[in-house]
Specification:
By secondary structure, the chain is α/β, with parallel strands linked by helices. The chain contains six helices and five strands, in the order βαβαβαβαβαα. It has a five-stranded parallel β-sheet, sandwiched between helices. It is globular and about 45 Å long. It binds adenosine-5'-diphosphate.
Length: 160
């Protein structure tokens, strides 16, 4: 079975993430969306909220699972018997950091491949940070996050 891991902060999951999830679920037998607990980042949403949002959003895609992890990504990938790390690429600005990460992960474990998926054009400007910024100021995020979680995301952002 070909298992792929799609890691990220998902703070919160956006339509751009969902697009990558749907497209990769057509290529791999199983895709595990893994929410990273990164001690260097201060997320807006708790790990439970981020996992819960993702679970609601991927409910209708049978070969997608949601999980969370701490520590080295390559260790987590091995633990799950996966062979591929999926990353989404938006702009040139994503490239340098992702390139460095991919090479470092290959150095740590050369049996694991990183696969980059180009964003869909309409989501190329979309990031979780943008959603948070607009949402906090009371702007409309209706086209940026999946409908299933829109109200919960909006409520939290307005009340911070
Ligand atoms: P961000 O906070 O920048 O949205 P995440 O850590 O949650 O980032 O992103 C997880 C993964 O999803 C990364 O590989 C990132 O490049 C990718 N990603 C984020 N937004 C998009 C988008 N709009 N289109 C394609 N890929 C995306």
């Amino acid at each position: 079975m070909n298992i792929a891991i799609y890691p990220g902060s998902f703070d919160p999951v956006t339509n751009g993430h969902l697009d990558i999830i749907k497209r990769s679920s057509k290529i791999f037998d199983k895709v595990i969306v893994a929410v990273a607990r990164n001690p260097n980042k201060t997320p807006m949403f708790t790990i439970q909220e981020r996992v819960n949002f993702l679970e609601r959003v991927v409910k209708s895609i049978p070969n997608v699972e949601v999980d969370h992890f701490e520590g080295l990504l390559v260790d987590y990938v091995k633990e799950k018997n996966a062979i591929v790390i999926i990353k989404g690429l938006r702009a040139i600005s994503d490239f340098e950091y992702e390139f460095q990460m991919a090479l470092m992960n290959r150095k740590l474990d050369k049996s694991i491949e990183t696969l980059f998926m180009m964003t869909s054009y309409k989501y190329s400007y979309l990031s979780s940070s943008m959603v948070k910024e607009i949402g906090k100021l009371g702007g409309c995020i209706g086209e940026l996050v999946p409908a299933e979680i829109l109200e919960d995301v909006q409520t939290k952002l307005i009340n911070v």
